[in-house]
Amino acid sequence: MRKVAVVGAGMTKFARRALETPKELSYQASKAALDSAGMKLKDIDCVAHGSAPDAFDGIHQKGEYLADGCGGWNKPTMRVFVGGATGVHAIAHGWYHVASGLADTCLVVCEEKMSSAMPHAQAFFLTIFDAITERALGLNLIWIFALEMKRYMERYGYTKEDMALSAMKNKNQGLKHPASQFYGGNELTVEDILNSEVMASPVSRLDVSPVSDGAAAIVLASERTARRLTDKPVWIEGVGWCLDTAYWATRDLYYPRYTEIAARKAYKMAGIREPHKEINIAEPYDPFGYKQLHHMEGLLLSPKGKTVELLRDGHFDMDGNLPMCPSGGLLGVGNPIAAAGTLKLCELFWQLRGEAGERQVPGNPRLGVAQAWGDLMQVSSVVVMGINNA
Prior knowledge:
Layout: E1 4-11, H1 22-37, E2 46-50, H2 54-57, H3 62-67, E3 77-80, H4 86-99, E4 105-113, H5 141-156, H6 160-174, H7 190-194, E5 198-200, E6 203-204, E7 213-222, H8 223-229, E8 234-243, H9 257-270, H10 275-278, E9 281-283, H11 289-298, H12 307-312, H13 329-332, H14 337-352, E10 367-374, E11 379-386
Parallel strand pairs: 2-3, 2-4, 9-10
Antiparallel strand pairs: 1-7, 1-8, 4-7, 5-6, 8-11, 10-11
Helix pairs in contact: 4-14, 6-11
């Protein structure tokens, strides 16, 4: 396998965007990524893109619809979708095409327009679960996440205040991100989150990431091409993913074993033996405040049951031992589902190159991990990025 680097990254603003079509959002992110790499579309050999199924967006053959907006006109294109895990999984998908030698460059673009989904995506989750064991409960995603959050809290004795502290951290950090839905807004307190509307106990409205529209893109290049384009390539050191059983009712929800399996695959490829010591930045998937803590344990970056203690001690702060979600994540920037994971890889790219501005992690970080989670809450995708590659 050839070495593969990220040489460019770009995003749209994450917000409810009534004016732009999904195709236009994809174009904006693609152009921003290409511009940052000093490249033109003619320099791209293939395109990988990710977006929700047709039923979610109300657009027939969504992959074909997005292809030219993503830059895929007259080029090989590949569409990926594994729910919320798409934004990281698509990068792994593009990585294979370059690492294998099939292409020298690949543009990876992920887009979602959640505010105009007709009907709302939640409506589909009422009908996709097992008709005998699950559907009779009248489930939607918020209810299932509430069950998982409750189980996680009870297993380790965490409190609702602990979960609110986690959400507050990301929401306030996201105020510094120029692509954030809340950029330049007012900081929240733990009390603000605790006092927000209860959606499904113990989940409150401000525990949850917002509905968003947006796109994010990165440019992958082979080693030879990357070294010609930039003196600051950021290397894809390892990729991994795991699909656990879709029957969430048969899993103990206190621990995301699918994330651990995916992480171990990525760490093995990257030659990482002690991730909690070797990783400098973590961007775990955080659609809910509790979930980033859940995923830090699955990523083997925090001992089970000790994550809140580390959070309170400042271990995950920007100047802590392991900064967590310096971007602000989904909670602080926004959650256009397929694009949300790619946001995290864009952030690692900027952080590792020292180009994150007000959000820059101190100390010249050299190795980061991004993770995303989705489908029927049982898929995890992980990518390790670094600047250590000689």
